[in-house]
Design goal:
By secondary structure, the chain is α+β, with helices and mostly antiparallel strands. It is built from four helices and 16 strands. It has one domain. 15% of the residues lie in helices and 36% in strands. A six-stranded mixed β-sheet has the order 9-12-13-16-15-14. The longest helix is centred in the N-terminal third of the chain and has 20 residues. The chain is globular and about 70 Å long. The chain starts with a helix and ends in a 10-residue tail after the last strand.
């Protein structure tokens, strides 16, 4: 099935939040590290991961080191970009590089990149599953790790974006409805400062428009960078949904306060509104 209206709205909201935190909050730190060999997920693709994830991939963020290539030692150090000398692609979300050849030996691959203060995930899990039943790894506060992170390792601080429901209300004659989507961000931080700062940015997004991004992102089937840059401001140019309401709840209640005391949690709820004609259909439309 092709992506529908709500799929595009929630995906666009995730990209919008990611951009807001990095731009307004400068929520990233520039690092340099080696990349370490990880498990092979796909045939003929070898993975080498950094000790951190996720990387900033948005080139519109000032002063962030967006990883566009890596240094590989073969006698001497060489800077490689995707498509050269076995470097297949760079996966900013996974904090990893993909090679078509096996790079043997320790400390052979290195790179300069920006690590986001908050990982951003789309989810359909319940709040209870995220807060109680999912094991998260704390991102190191200093560069002390000596191995790469596994592809399936989820680290926090993190923000989980989900839809909590939606409805259409009649708006005007001619078939126009007001579509209302209730979106929730589940914020997990490792300090009260980081929780307050992120919730402040999200709360202040009220009355802004989230552009709906309908075009394909410039990544391959692995979700990785192959040479075509990703620039949020370059693709977030269309109309979209209006953030009509934003509400922050740090007293998450319902037993959630028994969460690990090292995890600082909050819910941020958006009411997204857009006027549209949902019953007007033509081939190729939504």
């Amino acid at each position: 099935m092709k992506a529908q209206y709500e799929n595009k709205v929630i995906s666009s909201l995730m990209l919008y939040i990611d951009h807001k935190l990095c731009m307004r909050g400068e929520a990233y730190t520039n690092y340099s590290s080696f990349f370490y060999e990880g498990s092979q997920v796909y045939s003929n693709i070898f993975n080498y991961s950094a000790p951190f994830k996720q990387f900033v991939m948005d080139e519109s963020i000032p002063n962030a080191n967006v990883l566009s290539g890596v240094n590989v030692k073969s006698g001497q150090w060489h800077f490689l970009t995707p498509g050269t000398s076995g470097l297949h692609s760079i996966n900013h979300t996974q904090g990893a590089t993909h090679f078509t050849t096996h790079v043997t030996g320790q400390e052979r691959i290195s790179g300069d990149y920006a690590v986001k203060d908050f990982n951003i995930y789309l989810t359909n899990l319940s709040e209870q599953e995220i807060l109680f039943e999912t094991k998260f790894h704390t991102r190191p506060k200093v560069h002390e790790a000596v191995s790469g992170l596994a592809a399936d390792a989820e680290t926090y601080p993190a923000i989980f974006v989900k839809s909590n429901g939606s409805k259409n209300e009649p708006f005007s004659f001619g078939g126009s409805d007001k579509t209302i989507i209730e979106a929730r961000m589940i914020v997990l931080a490792d300090s009260a400062f980081l929780l307050d700062a992120s919730c402040s940015i999200l709360r202040d997004c009220v009355k802004e428009i989230v552009p709906t991004i309908s075009e394909s992102l410039p990544f391959n089937a692995l979700g990785a960078y192959t040479g075509q840059a990703y620039n949020y401001t370059g693709i977030a140019t269309g109309t979209g949904v209006f953030i009509d309401k934003a509400f922050v709840s740090k007293n998450v209640g319902g037993g959630y306060n028994n969460l690990n005391p090292d995890v600082h949690a909050a819910f941020v709820d958006f009411e997204l509104v857009e006027t549209r004609k949902p019953r007007q259909f033509t081939v190729g439309s939504q």
